[in-house]
């Protein structure tokens, strides 16, 4: 293989690894714990408090 193919292989592997790390980080941080609750939360009324 020529150098361009090695470069593209390295870029693809690093991007795949980065995406895997981001998915692992979001699972560890709890981003996917309550995926159903957000659609019900937007229908609830918010209580607006005065800042003054």
TrEMBL record:
Matching InterPro entries: Cyt_oxidase_maturation_cbb3 (IPR004714)
NCBIfam families assigned to the protein according to its UniProt record, in alphabetical order: ccoS (TIGR00847)
Protein name: Cbb3-type cytochrome oxidase assembly protein CcoS
């Amino acid at each position: 293989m020529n150098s361009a193919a090695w470069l593209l292989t390295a870029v693809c592997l690093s991007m795949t690894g980065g995406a895997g790390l981001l998915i692992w980080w979001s699972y560890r941080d709890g981003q996917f714990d309550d995926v159903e609750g957000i659609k019900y939360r937007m229908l609830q009324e918010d209580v607006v408090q005065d800042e003054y």
